[in-house]
Structures are given as structure tokens and as C-alpha cells.
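Notes to self after the call with IL:
- keep both proteins in one doc
- input above output, always
- annotate only the second one for now

Protein 1:
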Amino acid sequence: MRMQCCMIVMFIFIVLVMPAAGKTIVIQGDLQIAGEVIQESENEIVIRTNDTKIAIPRDRLEALGYRIVQEQETPALPLPTPTPEAPSITEMELSPEARGVLESVVQPPFAIVPSATPAVASSDPLASLSEDMESRAPEPLPPTGALPPGVETTVGGLQPLSAVFGSAAGPSTPAAEEMPVSPSPLLAAVPAPQTPAPAPSSEEVAPEFRGIWITRFEWPSRDAQKCLKTIKTIFETLKRNHFNAAVFQVRGQADVLYRSKLEPWSPLIGGADPGFDPLKVAIEEAHSRGIELHAYVNLMPVWGGRTPPPRTEPLHAFWRYCQPGSNPNWTCYDSAGKPMKQNEYVYFSPGIPAVHDYLRRVVVDLVTRYDVDGIHFDRIRYPGPQYSKDPISVARFEGPGNPDNLSWKDWQRDQLTRMLNNIYGAIQATKPHVNVSCAAWGIYRKDRIDGYGRFSSGYHDYYQDTHRWIEQGVMDALMPMIYWNIPEPKPNFDTLTEDFVKHAAGRHIYAGMKTYGDFKETVAEVLFSRQIGAKGNVTFSYGGIDRKNQWVDFYRDVYREAAPIPAMPWKENPQTGTIVGTVMKPSGNDPVEDAVLQLSGRTEKWLSSNDGFFAMLNVQPGAGLQITAEKQGVGVAEPLTVSVAPGQVIRVEIQLKRPK
């Protein structure tokens, strides 16, 4: 999935079995679309691939930087030899623009195969879908971007569906029906089948998180009425089929899908206020049906467009903080000390405290103004193991930002943990009932499970220490993206889910599942999750289920009756308290960054952020607790004595004094 295009530029083709010879066309961008032209007009091009017609609006392509690179009379292209060993995939890593085109104009069935010259061999099997539609699944792809064995690659080549979806022994792919010759959005506002409700069980249904990721490519529209209708349809469908939680994306690449004074509107909804507040509407639709709404936020990406974002009001963070002349510059830098070049996204550097402050303000603003049940983070990681050698991070690592003398890799992991610690504390001080979760990389550590050493893992390749996050209490739940099957070959859903549940530290694990392949596998994964003590499942994604009309399958096979959301005892009956505050310079007017704070009875060291903010979580109740703070060369604070009760949030301000 995560194609870190550091060494080669990899194109992705939508390819199906070509019909007879005729006029063909290739449209190139982040995505290449190849097919037989069957109709052209000033406004759109209609391409046939297999039995499917794809209507492609010309203005959509132009807006995203796509262009026609080949248009000629040519015979149908030859098919490569089927490879039964090829992994079962339906999608690979796409940029946001490629994904947007794909999801807005392409109707299934379709197959996507990598294209490169030459093919690169690897021992790493490729998984499928992507995080937040453009890159959701943490497939175990090495950081080099190598391709797996058994996946043949050609330039302009075609691969039969059997090679993509599995061998003849696997589930068959039904023949495609001819699609209408018109642009067709991913979410058609069509009610789910009215399946008769099964008889109620005599036993009480156990609490279970039945969640679904709903990406920003699945519900917004520039047409306000269409957008409103889609939102309502989504929640009607979830209620009817006994889902109880929606993980609903509202922030993608430092732009948002709700009213904000901090960040601009997303282009996916027209780049301007649509005349209503989509998040407010979604919350109302969800809550009226007894469904929780978790606001799904991409945290670290800044921008992923082929062209820069427009100069909006408020000005996009890309223009403010990620330009060559930006001072400060918040961009990730590579191992050579150069600002990262855009592949899928430009990322904020997690080692910069001002980035922590900015993102915390965005999240707290969202939590303060909206009645969300949870905040769900995605892409909360470094973009790759070679990042980020930016000047600010390097200076802090070598100086006051590394009070525990950690190694470089451990220090990078610690930056994400510290940022989350402060965000969690700020939420506790605002609306403590709101829970925090994240989409965790599906393989936590590749060195902890036999046979997984060749795969990528969140801990080693992206400095995402998710198990520490729940141990430290900066996450209420993990939603690991385990988009692989239970049977061999590795990776295996059961092994990885069990690893997360085993290390849950009393918090919740909702195992993430894919929506492609045989639904019997989905049933097996839900049953296994229940058996080993996971608190539920979350499925990627709404559009994947909707395309295959699998609602009836969920309703019939795993979600026969409605179920309540499992309780979070540490939220409902807290046994510890929280201390939040700021550290100020001796003048009292300016905040202190990287002041070292300690709490009596605790061994860890906290650091104040760029705005002086800090948060101490899971403080054992008691009186006479002392807080100390100091920063070399700036000053030392008088010890501050506080008392903390269970569930209480104490706010303090600490002012350093100049050393005598």
C-alpha cells in the first residue's frame, strides 16, 4: 500500500480484459486509465473496459492535472500469464487525486495492477486497500516500495481478473453488468435491501463496537442537496443493518469538511461553505438513530495534490509552513537533510513542538464546537523510516528536547507519543467523555512474531508505537488495520488481532477488516474477534460494502440484532486524575518550550510544548503532590503543590524564576 516512491516512479493502471481492436486511449496522471473509446463529447470521454463503461468528465481530469498521452488505433493488448500465487488485491496505493478520480468515475468490477519496468521482486506479499481511501491498509510493503513475487508488471499491460482476485479455487467474480454511460458517484442514494428482521434472541446481545470507516471520498459533493441526501442515506443504512458506530472523515490534508476558522474547506465539497455544516448534520443523523459518530481526522499530512492548494481564507498550512522560505518550516526532511518531495503527501514533522500545538488546537476546536462521541486519528506517523532530519528536530534531539537521552529512533517514537499525550489531556480538560482512537498499522512490531521479520511494521518503519499509546493512556481504543485473511500465507488476521488484544492494557481493540474477497472470511474474522476478547470490529469502508451490496450479508450473518457500544470503565468511572497547564518564562509573558517537568511519585519526565502546554495523565489521586519545572539557561520554578481527585482535571500555570 504505502508506495514510498523514493527510487522509482510507479504508475497504477486500471485494466480489464480489452474487447476487440479499436480506438484506445491512455489518460495519465497519478493514475493511468486505459480503454477503448466508445463515445466522446466536449464534456466527457466514455471508455469501455471489459463489460464496464467508464464516463470520465474532462473538466475533472483537467482540474487534477490529468492529460491524454496516447490515442490511437491499436489491437487489443495481450494478456500476461495468470499467476495463481498473486495476492488477492482490488486496490493499491493511490494519491488522493488518483483515488478521487477512481472513486468518482469508476464502477466495479475493476482490477488495478502495478506497472513498472522492470518488475522488482520481493518476499513481501502485497495487501490491498489504502488508508483513508488513498492509503488505508497497512500492507507489509518494505519501505523501498518493492513489489511482491507473483505480481507481473507491464507497461500498458493487462492482467486477467483471476490473477488479481485469486485462482480458480477461490471465490468467483460475477460477470459485470453494463454500467450506465454517465458519471456515477461511489455513493448512490439507494436504500439498502429491506431484509425482514430476524426474531429477537432470548439472550441479551453482548456489547460490541460495530464500526465502519466512511472516508472523505465517499460522502462529500459540490452539490449541497446531493451531499445532504448521501449523509442521510449513510446513517439510514447503518441503522438498518445494525452498525452502531460511524468513523466519519472530516479532515484530510490540512483542510476540513466542517466550519472552521483555523483551516480551509476541502475542495471535495467545493472549497467553500456549502450552505450547511456537514459535520453538524452527520452528528444529528447519527445520534437520532442511536449511532456514535467518531470524527475521523488525518493528522500529519499537509497536502497531496498535484497542484498546490488554492490561497484561501484561512490560508492553507501548505502556504504558511511548508514552503522553501517558510520560517519556521514544519515540513519533514529526509535523511540527507532535504525537505521531503511530495509522493502521496507532504507531511508535517512530528518532532516540531509548534506542529503539536497547531494540531492540538485543530482537534480541541473540533471537540469544543461539535457533539462528537470520539476523535479518530489516521496517518498519525512519520511518512517513512528516512524522516525527519529537519533542523528543528535535530537540534531538539541533540539538546533540550531529549532529556532521557533516547536513541534517534526511540526519540522519534517519543515525539508522536508526547503529541498524543497533550492532545488527550486537552480533550480531557474540554470534554472528558469524548474518546480517542486511531487507525493503527496492522503489524505492530515485525520482530515480535515468528515469520514476520520481512514485513513492514508501524513500530520500525513509521515510528508508530501504538502499544505504548494504550499502555500510557493516550488512546482509548486502537483500530488496527488488519486487512489480511486468517488462512496462510502470512500476514494472518488471527495472529495479528491476537497480538493487539494481548497487549490491550485494559483498553479497547476494534479489529479492522477489509471489504473485498469472500464474505465467509469476514464472518470468520468477526467470530474470531469475539472469541479472543476484542471489543468489536471496524470495516473499511462504507463504499466497499455499498458497491458489493454486502449489507444483507452483515445483517444476516454477523449483526442479526442491534448491540450496544461496549463501556469504557476508565471514562465512565475514572480512578485517576489529570493535570494540565502551561510553563511561562520569568517575565510571565512568554511560554517556555521543552521545560522539563516532573511529578512526585512518578519517574517520567514531561516536556512543555511550544506554547508552554503540558498534560500529566493518569495521576493517582492524593493531596500534597508536587510539580517541578526547569529549563537550563531559562530558569527553575518553585515546587507547586496540588491535590487531585478521581476524574478531576487540575489546571495550573507555572512560572520559572531566573537562576540566582
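Protein 2 (the one to annotate):
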Amino acid sequence: MSMENFMKILQHCKCKRSDAIYNTIKIVNAKIVDTQSMNVVSGEIIISNGIIKRVGKKIDKKAEKTIDARGMYLIPGFIDAHVHIESSLLTPTEFSKAVLKHGTTTVIADSHEICNILGIKGLELFLNESENLPLEFYFVVPSCVPATDLGTSGATVTAEEIKKMMKNKRIVGLGEVMDFPAVIKRNKRIMEKINAAGKKVVNGHAPGLRGKLMNKYYDAGIMDDHESLEYSEMVEKAEYGVMLFLREGSAEVSGKEQYRIIDAYPDHICFCSDDKSVVDIDRYGSILFNVNKAIALGYDPLITIRCATHSCAGYYGLDDIGNIKQGLKANFFLSKSLKKIKPNIVFVNGIEVYPKGHVSNRGKFTYPAYAKSTVKHEPINKKDIAIPTKHLGNIIVAKDGSLHTGWKKLKITEEYDVKKGILKIIVIERYRKNGNISTGQITGFGIKNGAIGSTVAHDCHNIIVVGTSDDEIVKVANELIRNGGGLAIYSRTTGLGLLKLPIAGIMTQDDYKKVGKILEDLKKKAKAIGCKMREPFGTLSFMALEVIPELKITDKGLVDVKNFRIL
């Protein structure tokens, strides 16, 4: 972001004189982390108009303001290599407030979720809202809208639209290419989208893909991956030249074994958060969590910081960030320790955005009416959600902390067996395109009485509900329809709980702290009715994701993911 844009923002702020924004700042007595040479050097820096002008042991130049770092480490701002802002349930303005204080100063955002609902207009809205925010937003254009033809989305994004968007300087690539069977077959439609990226980055999404099929997928021009299931898979991909993103989301995490890749291929690693709730961002940070987890596991702090900064900046061709060097943007933070990093002061473009929060008083972005009226299905009743006989006994096995599901096959005739943990799950097409309602069975959630539901359901974001009875499932589904989207829970013992998400049915513009409190309350209610999932709504949202094995459900029915077919 330019200094000119920052000055425009100041018109919206009421800053005390002592909190003024300075053109020149000098930081002294700092331990400067150099992510290129992998050294820590005691010294000083001079910032002028948002740019690092000098770095040295002792700088004989005065500034309008001098900050004594008192021996703290001066660390380049973290970069999130792949994130869906929408998964925080926040729009860009509140999202920026949540992540900045944890040292993330730049994100590469894939607006895949809002574009599945609103089409390319969703990306344009995000570009407009984020333009003058302190957090630096870069975007990739979603490649798979919809992800496949196995579900019904609200919109499509074409190769021509992708090619047009690539002209924008804040577009740095093509979003994760999830339809790997289409890529392997060299489907004309998907190849046109990959080619539309030109020389920019093409993000990958290839869970479990190995051997010749993996090679063919990446030979199509795809360049990275954040979905590897095992360490050996990561090694195979790294040896083939693939950049790997170590992911720490809310419902999806990387295990201790996967972190070994940092030592094995340190130059092939970036960090990403992918899908992270506002609660986890506020509590642990976004990329800060990845970094501190790696350090706690015993990995070199300097190598770890490099993965979160210099490596990611270089990968995306962002030559003006990622290190503390003359001529780069003054995006950094101060931390007392490298053993457990905790940002004390955060700067973006030479302006102290935390804890002073100079630009936090900016008014709300105005979303158009079409972005607030996306849940269009009529209320349902119990007769709408009977499970087809052919589907009985094909049970989705949900797993805590994983997007991957199992597939259990039983000979049963009942829709529910709550004692054995077998519940009903439904998906309702919400765009009024075909009115589909699909039903199936699922185990793993552990709910004993009640239902939970959401209009956040990757990737088509139709209505999804799981519960122990038709009455409770219908109650939750109709509450979501009535409120135009959100997260909901109901049981006779806890009553109704609701987080309204009026923006595209997946986001709210409310204060991120308020949103976090409501979400925490919903999670407590879910636990009270027996739900075993640490992230009940996050895990539920991925039960409709038809590109991650093994058995999923969309509005078109149960999906055999390995064979890419509806049962």
C-alpha cells in the first residue's frame, strides 16, 4: 500500500498528537533478523515514507521519532501463503484487525468461497474493500468455481475472467486447482484456466496423489501443494520441484511428522493457515501459530522465520517484502524472544498498526444488496429429508482435525442409530437453481440430542445440517434459511444458538471479538449435546467438499470421491 493511500485513511481516524504518524522513524538497539543471510545482527534501521532506508550497526542520522527496541528481535512481517479469508467468518476489514497483532502483515488470499457464491464479483468486492487496509492483501483468482460438477454452486468463474483479472497488480496467481482428475485428463476447460495464469503462480491441491499421476498433474503447470497426507508424500512432491505449504487451520492441521520437511527441504517450504476460525486467529495468531509450533518442535528459529517470510515472498515474486533490507517495505515486528515469538509492536509500510491501531477506525465497507440475499430456498419439512433406501448403510466417517473422511458400509434399515453414533446429514441447494435436498448418514460427530448446521459448506456453500432427529434438523435448517445464512445449533435442552452471517451467507462485518464470543458459545453448546469435534462447525463445513476423499455429500447426493461419482 502506498503512503498516499495511508494518508487518505487518516481522514477517518481520530489520533492523539502523541500517536501521530511520522515520515521518518529510527529504531535503535534491535537484534535484526536477516532472512537471506540467516543471521541476527545488533543494529539500527531508518524508515522513511514506509521504506527501509538504512540498516546498520550505528546510523548517524536523525529521525522524527526514535524507538528503543531494548534488545528485542526485529523480525520481517509474516506472510500467509494461502488463506481463505471467508473461513474466519470475517470480511477483510475485521480480518486484518485480527491477524495484524500476531505479526502477519501480508496474506495471499484465495477468494474461492465468496466467488462460488457471487462469481468474479466476489473477488472484485474483496479487492475494493482491502485496497486501503493496513494488512497487505494479494489475491489469486479461484480456478475451480465450481470445484466440480458434483455439486451446485451459486456461480462460475471462466477462463476469460481469470485472464482479465491477471492484469491486476494485486493478483499474484491462480487459486488451488482442485479438480485433479480433469487436470490429469488435460480437460480443455481446466487447461484454459491454468494457461490464463500466464507466468504467475498456479496453486495446487493434490491430496494423496503419488507417482505418475502426481507427475502428470504438476506437469500441467501447477506449482505447489498444501494437502499432503503423509511425510513420504511431501518428500516425493518436493523432489519433483513442488513448493510445499505447511498448513495449520482450525479443522485441518499438520502433524509432527510433517514438520520434518522443514529440515529435509528448507527451501521448499512456506506456511499457510488455509481455513482458520476467528477464535483461533485471536487466540494463537495465523502464521504465528505455525512458526511457534515449528520452534517448539525443535526446528531452527531462523529457518522457520525464513519459511514464513523470505521464502514465501520469493515464491510469489513479492520482491519488496520478506526481509529487513534497504529499499524494502518497512513491514516487521518486534519480539522479545525467538524461543516463543510474540509480536510487541507491529509495523506495516512504516506505520505502527499494533498496538496503536492507527487505521482501525475506518468505516465499514458497503456491500451491495445482491451480496446479502444469497440463501433462497423455501423452508423445509420432515418429509423432504427422508434418506433413499439405496443410501442407507453408506456412512460418512468424520474425523476430528481432518478434512478426510472414511466410508463405512453397513447393512441397516434405520436412518438413525444415535447410540452407535449414526446420525443423519442433509445438504440443501440454496441458490434456487434446482431445489436439491440430499440426505445421508454420518458418524464421528457424537451428538446425542440436537442438530448443528451451517451455510458455510465448502465449496458450493449450500446449507448443511447434521443431527439426531428430523425435528431438530428441520428446525436448524429453517433457522438458517430465515436469517439469510449463518451457523446454528438447536436441542431441546440448550435451545437455539445462532451466529448470523449476512454477507454471502458466510461472513459478518461485526467486530471480530464479538464474533469470536458468539462462536465460542456455539462450540460450548455443541459440546453440551455430546459433539466430540474440537471444531464442530469447521469440520461440518468440509463434509460437503467433494474433492477430498473418501465419502462426502453434496446437494446432488453422496459422492464417491476416489471415483468422482455420485452414488
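Annotation: Residues 6-18 have pLDDT under 50 and may be disordered. The longest helix spans residues 512-528.
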